Structure formats: C-alpha cells, structure tokens
Amino acid sequence: MTTANQSTPEAGASGQDVADVVVIGGGPAGENVAQYAHEGGLSAVVVEESLMGGDCSYYACMPSKALLRPLEVAHTAQHLGGVDSPEVATHDLLARRDSWVSHYDDAGQVRWAEDAGLRVVRGHGEIVGPRKVRVTGDGQSRTLTARKAVVLATGSTAVVPPALAGLHAWSSKDATGIVEVPGSTAVVGGGVVAVEAATWLAALGSRVTLLVRGESLLSGNEPFAGDLVQASLENAGVDVRLRTEVREATREDARDTGLGRVHGSPVRLCTTHGELEVDEVLVATGRTPRLTDLGLESVGVTARDVRSGNLPDWLHAVGDAAGCSLLTHMGKYEARVLGARLAGMLESEPPAVVPVPQAVFTDPQVGSVGLTERAAREAGHRVVVAEAPITGTAGAALSRDDAAGRAKLVVDRDSGALLGATFVGPDAAELVHAATVAVVGQVPVRVLRHAVPSYPTVSEIWLRLLEDLPVGLR
After folding, report:
1. CA angle 413, 355, 389 (to 5 degrees)
2. How far apart are CA 94 and CA 260, in angstroms?
C-alpha cells in the first residue's frame, strides 16, 4: 500500500532499481535507517556485500557477550557461598556462540528485513553519480537510483600497526570466532576489545600477555575503571604490560589459517620492554571508518568530508562510517534519527549534546556515560564529584562474596545537573541507563534524591553517591 510520502517509480525506470532511500551497508545502523525511513512512508533498499546484520551480529557484540556471560556466571559462582563452582565447558561455550551468530548464516536477518518491507540487494555498492549506486556481485552489475537519499552505513575496519602488518594476526573477528584456543596469546591494545578478549582467552586456558602502549587500560574512562579491570585480569593470570609498544614482529610461513584458528608457526615480538614469543597475536588497536571503494570521488567527496559531515544534501553517513562514536548503539541511534528525518517524521530535534553510554563486559563490569571529571573540567565546567565503593550497597555485597568496585558522579556545580557517571562492579552495565536518562534530561541531582531505588539492589549506589555530594547540591 502506498502512503502519502511514497512515490511511484520514475518513468522509464525499473521499479526494482529505484527507491526513495538506498543504504549501502546492512549492519545495525543500515538496517535501522532503512526501517525508520520505511515506517515513515519511504521505500528503502539495503545493499550488502557480506552478511546482513553486520559485524555486530556475527563478529563483535553478540558473540562477545555470548562468550563472556557464561564465564561471568561461572566466576561469580566461584565466589558465592552455597553454590558448587561450575566448570567452563569450552566445546559447549563455543557452541553457544555459534548459535547466537546463527552459524554465520544471515538468512534470518534477510527474512527480518524483507518482512519489515525492505529490499535487500546483494553485492558491493559504489556511488557512480548523484543518487546513483552501482551494485556489483556474482559477475553482474545493476545501478540503483535513490529519489531522496543515499546513506553510507559501511561500518569500520580494524587498524593494524605497521609493525604487525603481514603476520596474518588475529583481529577481533578471529577472537570472537575462536575455534582453537592458542596455548599463548599476545593481545595488543588496552581498550574494550582488548580487555574483553583477554578475559575470555584467559578463561579458556590461553596464557595471555596484554601489551598496552598507554599508561592504563580503558584510558578514556575514569582512572579507577582501568585499575580495577587490570587487577582482575592479573588475578586471572593475564600478564599486563603497560607502556609497551611492539617494534617488530616476525612469523615464518605467515598465511591466513581461517577464522579463529591458530597458525602453525609462532610469532616473535620485539617490544620496548624485551622479546616475547607466542602462538597467536590479537591486534586490538582501534578501528577506522570503512570508506574505501565507495566511489566518493565520483561526486567530489572525500573521507574527510564524510567525517566532518560536509556532504551533498542527498548523501548521509551513520554509525561507524560517520566516525563519531564507533559503538553499535550510537550508530543505531543516529540511524533512527536520520531515518525519521528523511521521512519527515522526526517530531523534535535531538538535544544539542547526546551522551555516549558504554558497557564493558569484563569482570568487574564497567558502565559509563557522559563526561569524566577530567573531560568536564577541560570543557570549562565548574565540577563537583561524588564517589563511593560499590560494596557500600547490600545489593552488591549480596551479589557475590568478593564484590569489589567503585562508582563516581560528575556534577555541574552551577546547575546541579549530572554531567557523567561511571560504575565498576557487579551489574555495572545495567546501572548506566538510569544515568543516561539523567544526563539527557539535565536532571538536577537534588531531584534524583527522590528517585527511590529498590532494596536490596546494586542501584542503591545512587543513594551513596548523592549523599557524598555537598549539602547545597543535594
């Protein structure tokens, strides 16, 4: 049924080759922008050259959590009186991962898209002119025309430092797709991917060395977050080496051995603090927007233009491709806003600042949103902070016998509004959304005093934090 916003195909053009919106990339951001545009009355086509659902569904968020959650439960049980400690069954754990990634088959995602009214076109999408996208694959080529917009939702690719190039080292895809557990693994990086992968690799029995160029883990967070995660990793047997760079790496017979499989020859690493030989190397040193081979030059656009948003009115970028916040949930948010805007269905403009929440599923978990104390001061805010140990709540203490962690609020002294929050400890990832709501709503902390948490839950940490603020603010 055609709605008021939909139009009929252009005269002389095939209806299959014309749509209001053409989205290049079928990951979470691409799916969401197409879905919201369609629900607003526009026709939408999604071009995908690999798996519908994108890296998040098959190689990142979903398999990572599928691996980490059972390990978290097992570790919690080891520190909870009255429970026999379960053992990690590697075969069953990997089978659970395979189930959650649908055995790397995207048929279900394609059915969802088609049931949602979207058209899926397989192949590599390349812009060949204003509102024109050529799709090539299986020896065939067709050109799609977008009446209204072309959206880049092509995701990102792993950054590999020059010293590690040519090794066929593992990327995050190999780590989440692990088939064989290396006897020893060097994880290069200190961010979310690195610490989460180090967690499950160590739990599966690999001797893990974490090589971190910086001064701490999770450097974008409050310092105590990285400190607590580092202590936990070291307690699990991970050798954490800070201020360490890889200068040179060699491997005999370097070749691609397949997703998640251990190479036959070891890797020799020369670092700023000595040499190291391991069975496998996981490179987790960041990601960059995937903007190559998209034909941007055909319309006078560069990768820098995409990152800055300096684009023609018919061309848009969302998610990792836009390069703002390389997180699935933020990409989906951007996509929902853009899809509704393209369809003329955006009821109100987003706030000027949308805080970025993040959850790190290590043990302990880390949840954060908004500004750290340092970032808030650098932004010019007059700041007051509140801190409290997670064990200050009965809910956290009951969750496991060795519960540890910390929480912190960053508050604007002048307005009393919450600027940021960080939680480290049991269920920390589930505490973040309340803080996100408060930051988005610019809720004064004196009002938050009247948001009563249930007892006994970890959420009672809010009371401890609010009580730590100066009387004039609370």
Report:
1. 60
2. 11
Q: How far apart are CA 468 and CA 287, in angstroms?
A: 38
pTM of the model: 0.92
**What are phi and psi for residue 242, nearest 5 degrees?**
-80, 165
Indicate if 160-285 has the same CATH topology as 15-57+101-157+288-342: yes
Looking at domain 160-285, its CATH class is alpha beta
Please enumerate in sequence order all residues whose Cβ is within 8 A of that of 36, keeping only pairs 6 or more positions apart, or say none: 335, 336, 338, 339, 340, 343, 345
Superfamily for domain range 15-57+101-157+288-342: FAD/NAD(P)-binding domain (3.50.50.60)
* CB contact set of 70 (below 8 Å; sequence gap of 6+): 88, 93, 96
Position 422 pLDDT exceeds 90: yes
Nearest Cα neighbor of 148 from 33, 2, 54, 305 is: 33
For the stretch 151-199, pLDDT in tens is 999 999 999 999 999 899 999 999 999 999 999 999 999 999 999 999 9
Output the CATH code of domain 358-467. Answer: 3.30.390.30
Look up residue 97 and give its two tokens: 């991962």
Virtual torsion, Cα 39, 44, 50, 55, nearest 10 deg:
-30
pLDDT at 12 over 50: no
The contacts of residue 114 (CB under 8 Å, 6+ apart) are 120
Query: For the chain, which residues make up each domain, given as ranges?
Result: 15-57+101-157+288-342, 160-285, 358-467
**In whole angstroms, what is the distance from residue 282 CA to residue 236 CA?**
18
Alpha helices by DSSP H, 312-457: 328-342, 373-378, 394-399, 428-440, 445-448
User: Measured at the alpha carbon of residue 249, what is the angle toward residues 248 and 253, in degrees to the nearest 5?
Assistant: 145
In terms of Cβ atoms closer than 10 Å to its own Cβ (0-12, 13-18, 19+), residue 297 is exposed
Task: Please count the residues of the chain.
Answer: 474
Q: pLDDT tens across 211-270, in order?
A: 999 999 999 999 999 999 999 999 999 999 999 999 999 999 888 889 999 988 999 999
Q: Are 397 and 403 contacting, i.e. CB atoms less than 8 angstroms apart?
A: yes
How far apart, in whole angstroms, are the C-alpha atoms of residue 56 and residue 383? 36
Give me Rg for the CA atoms of the chain: 24
